[in-house]
Design goal:
Largest sheet: 4 strands, mixed
Strand content: 5-15%
Structural class: alpha/beta
Strand order of the largest sheet: 2-1-3-4
Order of helices and strands: EEEHHHHEHHHHH
Number of helices: 9
Radius of gyration: 24 Å
Length: 251
Amino acid sequence: MSEPKYLFILGGEKPLMFHPFEPGSELYEAPGPVALSGRYGTGEIPKDTATIRADLYRAMEHGSRRHFLDKGYYPRLFLTVFTFLGIYLFFSIVIRDPVPMIDELLLGGLAAAAVFFASERKALSSPKHIESLLSLRRSIDSSMFIESRVVDLVESWRDEALELGPASFYRDDASDPGLSPDERAEAEALCIMFANRWRSRPIVAELYEASRKGAPPGKILDRMFKSMGPDEAALVLAYLRLLACIVTVVQ
């Protein structure tokens, strides 16, 4: 069995679930069972396990669908284009009608759409896709959640950032949390999930680069809190502090 993949629940008014079921994940091509290990912060055990598992099923099925559709996207696109051109040219050259182009375009478009959706259905009914769904569903069913100091740290840093606002960025930690090898593996996995969450938000990378170079980040912090909102911006600051712990260990 491969190394475990992590699931994280961050508590709060609106608990957040982080999982590895992004489209394109290697999990959908895994040759064997995938070990999933859940983590949550110290305190009450997550109660609504049925909802948690339903959310994980939904995320996994969506990611798997996108993965297998994206894999064959260009062949399906070329087949669709060739179908349209073939039908269009056939009816344009072989069959003459009093209203040129209209019938050809309509028939070509309908044929192309039929071929495209039929190829999507074929991709989603492939043995690989079905096997991936069943295997990952079993992995979710057998996953267990345990308390995590890494999640504790992120939740406390996020809460601190919510209380202090952008000023929390300048707060120095009294001591290094001293992550163990297992905790570091958790932290790395969670940082990857954070990075995926904000991959379309360049301001996060901008803030990280500014902090790494020692440039004054005040204006960037203000823009981030304004554009992303205090809850999300506070989570970004917690992410940067966790990332700093990993970099410190590497150095």
